[in-house]
Amino acid sequence: MTDETLKPSPLHALHEELNATMGSYAGYALPEHYPSGMEVEHLHTRKQAGLFDISFLGQVRVRAKEDNAAIAAEALEALMPLNIKSLEKNRVCYGLLTTDQGGIRDDLAISRQENDFLLMLNGPNREDNADYLENAIGDDCKLIREFDRAMLSLQGPQSAEVLSRVLGQQVIAGMRYRDSAEVPWEGGSIIVARFGYTGMEGFDISIAAEQAEAFARRLLADPDVAPAGLATRNSLRMEAGLCLYGADIDKTTSPVEAALVGSIAACRRAGGERAGGYPGAQTIEGQMEHGIYRQRVGLRPQEEVLLGGGVELFSDEERTDRVGRVTSGCFSPTLRAMIAMGYVTPAHAAEGTTLYATDAEGQPHKVVVTVLPFIPQTGH
């Protein structure tokens, strides 16, 4: 039974028809998993293709009032350490909104369209971050909320073949990783981006709410496609070593601590042609030069124990020397083992370092630091 206080996604009726086990995420009622279960969904997506409902993402457009994309790019560059001015039309990049203290306000995907930029905000804070953007982009730009649009994600090695059968080989074949395209479909248009947050080959699809169910049914009619819930999306992103906002990153963590320095464009770093100029730049540049007190690492529990967010990590079995904490963990169907991520002091971040965690009963468990990702990413 669905909590009536939760907002239904445009695919809610379809999820119910497919007997999904529903959960709460970002104010929406969304599938945790379907009757086949998370493990089956995960492995099917790894081998073929899984279809996810990610309509909780907040879609907004940032557009200059004169329809000048260069003005909009300059406004966005003042808020994040990216080279948005050089982002080509119909290309997507991953980026961070930073705070004045050098923390992460949000991580998001940004797609340059014909005359504006389409941003995909994380669901839990989408209203607050849309308000922040609206107030921060200046008088020469405007923000257009498109929260009523649906968002689907088709992920897995067969996703390109599936979309080719639906939209045409000529549309999909020419798309590189992080390309986007506006494609006509059934009297309307959809925005397809060769992108996703599973570390795999895949596509994110922005579509009008009234067309979403028909398009999802068309995809699910393909024998390579199975519906997949948010539990599977979580296990896939964990295997790929990708952060979940609100768990692994938030306003208290910096891009340097989170091992997301790659999201800071070279031209925005110290010595670059447009160095700094974004919130928290001085703090972040200082960390890049002088070091940090904690850093994100992968963790492999040496026993079949799930280590969730908040579990403390110690350097000794007696647990007297606290050196970090777990931020997220799950069972990896691919590895047939428990995996986790967390933050530890740099002195304890080397691959192979043995740490100790405490379970709910107070028992110690050995954990080994490992490099990320757990599974090599294949979407590049």
From TrEMBL:
It is an enzyme of class 2 (transferase). Keywords: Aminotransferase, Transferase. Residues 294-374 form the Aminomethyltransferase C-terminal domain. It catalyses: N(6)-[(R)-S(8)-aminomethyldihydrolipoyl]-L-lysyl-[protein] + (6S)-5,6,7,8-tetrahydrofolate = N(6)-[(R)-dihydrolipoyl]-L-lysyl-[protein] + (6R)-5,10-methylene-5,6,7,8-tetrahydrofolate + NH4(+). Gene3D superfamilies: Aminomethyltransferase beta-barrel domains, Aminomethyltransferase fragment, Probable tRNA modification gtpase trme, domain 1. Its EC number is 2.1.2.10. Pfam families: GCV_T, GCV_T_C. Residues 11-260 form the GCVT N-terminal domain. Belongs to the GcvT family. NCBIfam families: gcvT. This is aminomethyltransferase. It comes from Bombella favorum. The gene is gcvT.
